[in-house]
## 1
Amino acid sequence: MTRTVSIRVFGRVQGVGFRYSAMRRAVSLFITGWIRNHEHGHVEGVIQGGEEEVAAMLDWLREGPRHARVTETEFSETDGECFDAFRIL
């Protein structure tokens, strides 16, 4: 079953390679969707994939890459379009 989750990640998540690291992790897990910087300093996006893969991606997002400092995450199940790749917007 495909799961789609809207994500918001707060903390030191811009200017530290967060989006590019997230894209590499998503591709390795066969996750599709998108991620982008938000003007208020956090990162937002949508991830889509199998149950186990999405759970693994959410775990990764709670920590982020080495140079990031994640202080808070918000995840919500969502319906919507199907994605064919993972993109940085």
Note: The mean pLDDT is 96.
## 2
Amino acid sequence: MQLRLCPRVAACLALLGVSWLAAQPSASHADVQGASRLTLFREPASQSEGITVIHPQTDVSATLGGASLAAGYEVDIVSGATPRVFGGVDAVSAATRFSDLRQTVKSSLGWNVSDVGLLAGYSYGWESDYLSHTLQVAARGDFLEKNFTLGLAYTRNFDTVCDANNGLAQGVLALRALGSSARCFEGGQTETVKRDLDIHTLEPSLTWTATPRLLLQLGVSLQLLEGFQSNPYRQVLVGSQGRTPQERVPAQRQRYALFGRAHYALPALRAAVALHGRAYRDSWDLLAATADLWIHKYLMEGLLLGLHGRYHRQTGAVFYRSAADYERLGPAGSYWTGDRELSPFGTLSSGLKLTYIRSRQQRPEAWLDTLEVSMKFEGMFYQLEEGAPNRDRTKALVAQLGVLARF
């Protein structure tokens, strides 16, 4: 209880700090902002009920002079059914229903003076079988008449995963999967154990204002993960003898990504175009490439249309095999997985977003500087290989409603 109380108190203090900044005598010069979003993610399945995630999120922030303070709270309400065993003819029909509640509180403090900006943040996430503490620090500096901005961000995660107690297992093929999260993190019991996962993320970037209309950015993301990274509930059918041990992946993973972004304004059309690209590789020999395209266009005064397209393609991890190959050939070394995110696949996404914007310039008597109400829909289509995990889930829908107010 004490572990969960402290982050909640921290979030409450951050919210009080936002209120305090807004209430200062010079608050007329302060920028106070509040935003709320409700997102629905639905991934149907042809042979089970699929996955549904409802995600409400609220963020508030205030800026006064060079100081800024922000706080937020978000929830994932997850329900659905997924096979506990990857492989075998009855895997889909034996899908297990589940539900979970994930919550996160976060806060940050920033300081911007002239050409330098600093930021420090903290977040805490908890669910029945996972706890996460995250610390973040970031800095940016402008130079050459503010045409260039150099940024550097570092994030440190201290995560704890609930796992089945396999202390008496006779070898890795005898590892048992976690049956339930009901007794996770309880003291005085021996059914479950805590596993640590430490994550370090470093992201340097360089942004260039090439012209008044063109903004370019190039950056690198470096991430080191060490600890328990398997799904504790998942089993994999390995070998012709029908053994179904718990999923097992390496404890170390290094991830490397190179990304570039270009934003171009088209004032004559009251539009803007953004193109993002990302190339990825990791120590599990997984390669990936992603391209994103955004087009924003004012349809009329106060009504903004956004169009988005995305394509992602990746190879599989070096130890990944299809369900049939795991059964026929056995494991690739001493690791096996039923994670779709570690299999070869592609994703094509497209969607649109409508935003209604009302500003004080349009209505001088309004007590809000800006009010934005948005609605977004996006479809995702998966390109999966035969025998891939969750092969019966080939598409997903994302719908979102949002409101933002600036005072």
Note: The chain has one domain: 2-399.
## 3
Amino acid sequence: METSTADDSQLATDPQHLLAKLPAFTLLTQLLPELQQFRFGVGGSLLLCELGLLSQARDVDLVCAASDFNSISTMLSRTLHQVAVAPHPRYQSRCFACFVAADGTQLDLMADIAVLDAGELISWPFDESQLQRRQGIPWMSVQQWLELYQLFQRPQRVALLQQWLR
């Protein structure tokens, strides 16, 4: 019969331990050496996993400076398959690309984010000064993703982040 020590149970609930097991995090760490030359931040569900708010990340969300978008896209195209994305009636970002790794893990790259809301185009500026580097990864701030989830009308994610900020 196996026994569990206190250290084992801590590892099972430690966000960093869980993060390391996620295919999305594995993909990010594989790409990180080449990405480091660019201005970008990691957000979305992977950020929520890093904060311990979710246990699964369905993809990697990278937000970058618009001036780096084409270079990052070219770099990603060397190792990932770029997939076509149909235009969305609300999401009007000037720069958006979707890539898929061999294992099926998706990566979304975006810049110059804009959302059409009630006929008004709302732009969201990427601010690299708000990035928080942890484990060598430029994580976007909770506040940045709270704003984005509000723009994207993702109420459950908004509630998660608002609770975390309290």
Note: The chain has a mean pLDDT of 90.
